[in-house]
Design goal:
45% helix; 3-stranded antiparallel β-sheet; Rossmann fold; 536 residues
Length: 536
């Protein structure tokens, strides 16, 4: 037998290493998150987090007291997060495992822990031999404190309810996503950065009321005397095009000048060549006969760029009336084969796409508005066409905003891919129309085109749903004319020069950072050095 150890007082215990995680762990986690943010394209958030991590790390290294306080705070936060996570996990186990087992045992009047009960099954002492008997006071016969019992009972109720609530919230959104159509409406980004959410109805779309019966009078929204003169002096400029069905031939009048596929636009008062910006769209971008050369949307963009920032923009307006996005894309590709590449390409349109592909019986692939007209013209001239009795193109069976948005998306995607391959910047704008402007003055426009408020409201809802279903990047200008007084439109989409000024200035405001960057790259980093000053 060995010697018996003598016990004495212990000596002083020296200070051990500081508790908590090492100082370098937080910067490592922060830098990892910074890398993830950069990888996902959130550069601004990554830079902000990097600055915060750097500042906190330096402060901890310089000030031990700050390091202790921050470590204590991080420890408390981690402790709280751990407690919360434990409650959530235990709550899930309680809901998914404990509660179902408890319900089953209660319904079956079976208590697996009650050894001495007469109906305890295999735990019953009555069927056992004397050498198998348990003590009269087994470990399961623990005394229970009433307070603890009530606390546990409350936890048994509250924890599962909280877990169910936490599980129900994401489940509700998950079920809603499953029930929603894949191409259903989403919030539409507006020109001012806000959202215009549009909900899809549970029943098929329906348009009621009296639709437009005829074109409006262009003079309805005009107050200038020259407008009537311009309308009286207009000439027929549209002709057949073998590629895109329509094109515009050269024309020169006092207010409308068109040459070499481009309508004349306002030019800055400087000899600097400036930025070459191409505009593609339909009639409202081209500018109808009662819109003067210097007051089209393209002209207003060039004027605003010069007046607001001294940036000379040479606007090439390639718009053609009636064009859809796919025709704009084809024309753009054709122009890129014939001319030097521009500094920027701008699409301004979209109404024809949404309007033409939203109606019942609309094609589900790109077509054109004049196909039937040309077919009838050829037949009237005596031509024999080998046309099948049934159309091979799939068509919609009802009002279909998703179809209109899908056709529009595909045209924009092709334009994006083509310009991206050539390294040409691109901007896309959805033009305003009568259906998105709720103004008392426009009741005269509704009367002029033979429609009513019921149709405006019902078709406007379908049109809004089509706008909301667009998935490609687009700046929605539907609200830019809302603050204009008086009559602006003379039909569903054509408006006066006040409207083109408001729309053009909205486009320029959105393009301004891009124009400034392009101009800085090509002009040594500063505004134009021309001696002339911006003019009104």
């Amino acid at each position: 037998m060995g010697p018996i150890s003598s016990w004495g007082e212990t000596g002083e215990i020296g200070a051990g290493p500081p508790s908590g995680p090492p100082w370098w762990l937080a910067p490592l986690v922060g830098l990892t998150v910074v890398g993830l943010l950069l990888w996902t394209g959130h550069a601004e958030g990554a830079l902000l987090l990097l600055a915060l991590v750097t500042a906190l790390t330096l402060a901890r290294l310089v000030s031990p007291s700050f390091d202790r306080r921050l470590s204590w705070l991080l420890g408390r936060v981690a402790h709280g997060a751990g407690r919360l996570l434990a409650w959530l996990l235990l709550g899930g186990v309680t809901v998914l495992v404990v509660v179902p087992v408890w319900v089953v045992t209660r319904l079956g009047r079976y208590d697996p822990l009650d050894i001495g009960a007469a109906d305890a099954g295999r735990w019953d002492d009555g069927g056992r031999r004397w050498w198998h008997r348990r003590p009269d006071q087994p470990f399961t016969r623990e005394a229970r404190r009433p307070g603890r019992r009530r606390l546990h009972a409350a936890g048994l109720v509250l924890v599962p309810l909280g877990a169910l609530l936490l599980l129900a919230l994401p489940a509700r959104h998950f079920v809603a996503d499953l029930r929603a159509p894949s191409s259903g409406p989403a919030p539409v980004p507006s020109a001012d950065g806000g959202d215009q959410p549009v909900a899809a109805p549970d029943t098929p779309w329906e348009v009621t009321g009296t639709g437009p019966q005829r074109d409006g009078d262009p003079l309805l929204a005009q107050t200038d005397e020259w407008a009537a003169e311009a309308l009286a002096g207009r000439v027929q400029v549209t002709e057949y095009d073998p590629t895109n069905i329509l094109r515009i031939r050269d024309a020169h009048t006092e207010y409308f000048n068109y040459e070499d596929r481009v309508r004349r636009s306002w030019e800055p008062p400087t000899d600097d060549p400036g930025l070459d910006v191409w505009f593609f769209g339909s009639s409202m971008l081209l500018g109808p006969s009662v819109i003067r050369d210097d007051h089209t949307v393209a002209s207003e963009v060039a004027r605003a760029a010069w007046e607001q920032g001294g940036i000379p923009v040479r606007a090439s307006n390639f718009a053609i009336g009636g064009y859809e996005t796919w025709q704009q894309t084809v024309l753009m590709a054709q122009m890129l084969t014939e001319r030097p590449a521009p500094d920027l390409v701008v699409f301004y349109g979209g109404y024809n796409d949404l309007h033409n592909y939203i109606t019942p019986g609309a094609p589900t692939e790109v077509s054109n508005t004049w196909a039937g007209d040309f077919e009838r013209a050829l037949e009237d001239s005596g031509a024999t066409l080998q046309v099948p009795a049934e159309d091979s193109v799939a068509r919609t069976t009802g009002w279909d905003p998703a179809n209109a948005a899908a056709v529009y998306d595909r045209g924009i995607e092709v334009a994006q891919d083509l310009l991206r391959a050539r390294g040409i910047p691109f901007a896309n704008f959805l033009q305003p129309c009568l259906w998105t402007r709720e103004a008392e003055a426009e009741r005269a426009t509704l009367a002029q085109i033979g429609t009513d408020e019921e149709y405006r409201a019902s078709f406007g809802a379908v049109y809004d749903a089509a706008r909301a279903a667009i998935t490609v990047p687009v700046v929605d200008l539907s609200d830019v004319l809302d603050d204009l007084a008086g009559i602006v439109y003379w039909d569903e989409v054509h408006h006066n020069e006040a409207g083109t000024a408001a729309a053009g200035q909205a486009v320029e405001r959105h393009l301004r950072p891009q124009l400034q960057a392009l101009w800085a790259d090509g002009n040594g980093g500063g505004p134009t050095t021309a001696s002339t000053t911006p003019s009104a």
